[in-house]
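Please, structure for the following, as tokens.
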Amino acid sequence: MIEGVKHIVAVASGKGGVGKSTVTVNLALAMVAEGYRVGILDADIHGPSQAQMLGVPEGVRPQQAGENRFRPLETHGVQAMSMAFMVDTREPMVWRGPMVAGAFQQLLTQTAWNDLDVLFIDMPPGTGDIQLTLAQKVPVDGAVIVTTPQDIALLDARKGIEMFRKVNVPVLGVVENMSLHVCSNCGHAEPIFGEGGGKRIADEYDTRVLGQLPLSLSIREQVDGGRPTVVAEPDGEVTAIFRDMARQVAEQIEGQSADEGPSISFSD
């Protein structure tokens, strides 16, 4: 187990650009609103975005907590750790896979998490080094898969689900992001990326759709500005969707018995 953490939930997608980090930060903040102690680990070493989404100013560094350990930064009631807190975010991380996996492991194990109920891990897209490191080194209680209804995104979301199934990590559900665009002028609703994709994939893999999120300018503006929707509009419709998702995640991870965690085994 990771010291100071009760449950670990990975938020993943098969491909980039589907809003995974936006879902992670709002889901974490919704968990806080539901009364849980929550952390976020930004595992996207090459393109960390949680610092900006949480409104952490550039150049803010974590405090040391004893030898080789750092305290997570706390913002909006969430404990957070990211590569963005360690380096100049304008400099590219031109690293090969083993270095990236090593950096992820250090962030995970050298952060002094303080009594978390849930640690959300914002995964990089795909099924590569970091995903393997996570599966082999960490007891993950469950995974949330983020997709858009678009066929191409669903194709990659399937790979994400298959990967977690291979390593015995329960898929807690699918979040269908950008599922409907509502015109801010006339109110006309249109499924720009297609419809029903999240449900199809959830049915196929015997899991559930945790929620459907609209394609909305305000959601994007709020995370870009460091005040995600759950904080910016606590009584809004989108926040209600995230709060409902948070309750479903909590219910599932708390429902697992202690000996029900994943048993990871890989053949070479």
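The beta strands are 5-12, 38-42, 73-75, 78-82, 116-122, 142-147, 171-182, 189-190, 209-215. The first strand starts at residue 5 and ends at 12.
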